Amino acid sequence: xxxxxxxxxxxxxxxxxxxxxxxxxxxxxxxxxxxxxxxxxxxxxxxxxxxxxxxxxxxxxxxxxxxxxxxxxxxxxxxxxxxxxxxxxxxxxxxxxxxxxxxxxxxxxxxxxxxxxxxxxxxxxxxxxxxxxxxxxxxxxxxxxxxxxxxxxxxxxxxxxxxxxxxxxxxxxxxxxxxxxxxxxxxxxxxxxxxxxxxxxxxxxxxxxxxxxxxxxxxxxxxxxxxxxxxxxxxxxxxxxxxxxxxxxxxxxxxxxxxxxxxxxxxxxxxxxxxxxxxxxxxxxxxxxxxxxxxxxxxxx
Length: 301
Prior knowledge:
Elements: H1 8-21, H2 24-31, H3 35-49, E1 54-55, E2 62-63, H4 65-87, E3 96-102, H5 104-121, E4 125-131, E5 145-149, E6 157-171, H6 173-179, E7 195-196, E8 204-209, E9 212-217, E10 223-224, H7 227-235, E11 241-244, H8 245-254, E12 258-260, E13 269-277, H9 285-297
Parallel strand pairs: 3-4, 3-5, 7-10
Antiparallel strand pairs: 1-2, 5-13, 6-11, 6-12, 6-13, 8-9
Helix pairs in contact: 1-2, 1-3, 1-4, 2-3
């Protein structure tokens, strides 16, 4: 069979959607096919390529290393095709499912409040939002865009910086009335310091006294799995928490929280990035639209 007789872009699209949706049945429903037809299509694709793309011995769809490479490069090819069609005046609007992963604070303070505006601009896009403070594998979790705080370590990802935020130590007025306001870093020994229990959490609070930098151990009686959970514990009067300024600026303005030890704040900034797979020139329109929107609308500090 010649290449002209094979709908390679169609096969590629079915394969990619099967991967993104996590199975042949879901892809079959989307393309109005039977699951067996999707399975046969993938088998023909593997036969033509001379390699296995998907392991079928597990309950969930699992890509082989060759399948991972084919998936990533295939998404770039389809994105390039979509971009070519857009430039030619065909399908010139973002469309399709857009899976976004974000840390919980950014999700609550920016992504969720801005979602209606984004969808109003792009009515053919369907957002699939997952909030977690754990770092996820974009390919494994079928994620188009992830928003991450802190230094980036994965060199395979492309990133767009959304901004940066300073960190601040806060507590509720009720807690400070009960336990006194800490006036020096040394006074924190007498206070309940609330910490995060996710893998990337800092193990201490950096402070600066004169020209001396110190790292105060977190020794409180409670931990939480997200910055928003820590914020809730602080507002409830349980102890002190060190959080991103954008998380607590409204709480401070409303008097729900009070910033402390600002004279000893080292001024360290936490960068926020939107990360994604592939090079910027090969982005689907829906991904490019979200990235441009976040850069335009997010104001951290």
